[in-house]
Design brief:
Blueprint (H helix, E strand, L loop, with lengths): L5 H29 L4 H22 L6 H4 L2 H20 L3 H25 L4 H22 L15 H15 L4 H20 L17
Helix pairs in contact: 1-2, 1-4, 1-5, 2-4, 2-6, 5-6, 5-7, 5-8, 6-7, 7-8
Length: 217
């Protein structure tokens, strides 16, 4: 099996990260368009969604300043995604599948890349999973709070979100020492996509604890 050179891998990882930034920014911008935010509001929500998870991860792991401030190409990608969401939001917002696609793509890419970043600085298994999860869902949580929504990770049991990100980070960790890095990241991302797809079809979901007064009689 051929291993990619460090330079090639770093370049590929950078572009994958930018794709995730673009995807998340469009997801946040589309929500802002639905909420009837103005251009400034759309850009803010799109950018916060795109870089929020990574910023939280970097702050927790002591990597300061956050990556998006050390490499402004991430901010440019977030800005581009936000403007695309604003420019085409009226059309794209009609298609729920489009929003789900961008959201799932961002979640998958960031969960896997966040896990690899945590492995690189020597975190343990739980730390890697947590860092990968927060990388994927952190921006979405901040997005929903700014938009006055209950974060979906708290209640959308029929569409796995944080759980899918955690599973993707875990698979990335398992594959890290067994396959080339890009395959580990791809494997983790595909697990996120698969779990999201299965949950939307009702094949996988998390249990919900109901109070006695809420149970059907």
């Amino acid at each position: 099996m051929v291993e990619l050179s460090p330079v090639t891998w770093q370049a590929g990882l950078h572009w994958v990260d930018l794709l995730g930034i673009l995807a998340f920014a469009m997801s946040g911008a589309l929500l802002a368009v639905r909420k009837k935010f103005d251009l400034f509001g759309v850009v803010v929500l799109g950018c916060v969604t795109a870089v929020g998870g990574g910023a939280i991860r970097d702050a927790m792991t002591g990597q300061t300043p956050p990556l998006f401030l050390r490499d402004e190409t991430y901010l440019w990608a977030a800005l581009a995604g936000s403007l695309l969401g604003f420019g085409f939001g009226e059309r794209l917002a009609r298609f729920e599948r489009t929003m789900r696609f961008f959201d799932t793509a961002g979640l998958a890419l960031f969960a896997a890349s966040g896990a690899l970043g945590a492995i690189k600085i020597g975190l343990g298994p739980l730390g890697v999973i947590f860092a990968g999860t927060i990388s994927g869902v952190g921006g979405g949580i901040v997005r929903d709070l700014i938009a006055n929504e209950v974060p979906e990770v708290m209640y959308r049991r029929e569409q796995l979100y944080a759980t899918a990100a955690a599973a993707g980070a875990w698979v990335t960790l398992l594959l890290y020492s067994r396959v080339p890095l890009w395959q580990a990241q791809l494997g983790g991302a595909l697990v996120v996509v698969l779990l999201r797809w299965m949950s939307r079809r009702g094949w996988v979901r998390l249990p919900v604890r109901r109070l006695p007064s809420e149970r059907p009689k």
